Structure formats: structure tokens, C-alpha cells
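Please fill in the sequence for the structure shown.

STRUCTURE ENCODING:
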């Protein structure tokens, strides 16, 4: 009888206390592991976000080498379309592909139509960093445009022409 009473009064509360304490510790451990999971997920999201620029890299529409300058026209889709278009214009050295400071840059397009005056469009360009310009241009219809790029800066003065289809 004493042993049953000892079991009920001493051992049962100790077991209850031990189980309860273990139960109370679990959420803290889970919370700690949840923090670890959250930190890992955040790190992965940041890494993917940082690499997003590489994944959404622009595709070249046209390259034109003129003297010591390689002019590259790029868009996300790899083409110009009817309507408003965003693009990147890059000036690099053909020898080492390093950016070249082109200074003041302009990009204009024209499309000759039989029996009509040429359709002319000029781009709005913003220098992003030396050798890289972001721009926008709008086309009212499809067709092949003659693109003229001119520059005047530390890389010298120059111009180049090439054709680009608007789809």
C-alpha cells in the first residue's frame, strides 16, 4: 500500500512534470528550427532575386562594329514590337569587351514607305553607367527600320547604321 501511495504521490507527479516540461520545450525548439528555416528561405529568395538580373538578361537585337567601338542594341525579348519598347544600348571595346564611355548618344530610326515621307522615330536615352544607356522608343506599325546611332564623348565621335525589324 505504501508503495502504491509512493507511486501515486511521488513518481506520477515527477513523470507528469517531466512530460509537461518536455512538451513546453518543444515549441521553443520548433520555433528555433522555424527561425532556421525562415533564415534559409530568406537567403534563397535574396540569392534568386540577386541572380534575377542574370536570368532576365537582355538579348541582342543588333551588333555593329565601328572602328574601336562595338555598339549593341538589346531588349528583354530580343526584338522590337509595335508600340512602346524599352531597350539597352551598349558601347564596348571589341578587343576586351570593356565598356566604352560614348558620352552624348542619340538613336533615331526611319522607315521608307513608297509614295510617302519616311517614318521617323527618335529614342529617349538615359545614361545608366559609362558605356550603357537605357532607352524607350515607340513604333506605330511593323516593318524594318534603319537605325542610326551617333555618339560624341571620351570614346571619340562616331555613328553607325543597321537595320532592325519591328514585329
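FILLED IN BY: designer on duty
SEQUENCE:
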Amino acid at each position: 500500500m505504501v508503495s502504491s501511495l509512493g507511486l501515486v504521490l511521488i513518481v506520477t507527479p515527477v513523470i507528469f512534470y517531466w512530460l509537461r516540461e518536455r512538451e513546453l520545450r518543444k515549441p521553443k525548439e520548433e520555433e528555433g528550427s522555424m527561425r532556421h528555416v525562415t533564415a534559409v528561405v530568406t537567403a534563397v529568395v535574396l540569392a534568386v532575386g540577386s541572380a534575377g538580373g542574370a536570368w532576365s538578361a537582355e538579348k541582342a537585337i543588333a551588333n555593329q562594329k565601328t572602328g574601336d567601338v562595338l555598339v549593341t542594341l538589346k531588349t528583354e525579348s530580343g526584338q522590337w514590337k509595335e508600340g512602346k519598347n524599352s531597350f539597352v544600348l551598349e558601347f564596348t571595346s571589341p578587343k576586351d569587351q570593356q565598356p566604352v564611355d560614348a558620352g552624348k548618344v542619340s538613336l533615331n530610326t526611319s522607315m521608307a514607305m513608297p509614295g510617302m515621307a519616311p517614318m521617323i522615330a527618335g529614342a529617349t536615352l538615359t545614361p545608366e553607367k559609362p558605356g550603357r544607356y537605357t532607352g524607350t522608343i515607340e513604333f506605330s506599325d511593323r516593318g524594318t527600320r534603319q537605325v542610326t546611332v551617333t555618339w560624341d564623348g571620351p570614346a571619340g565621335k562616331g555613328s553607325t547604321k543597321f537595320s532592325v525589324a519591328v514585329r
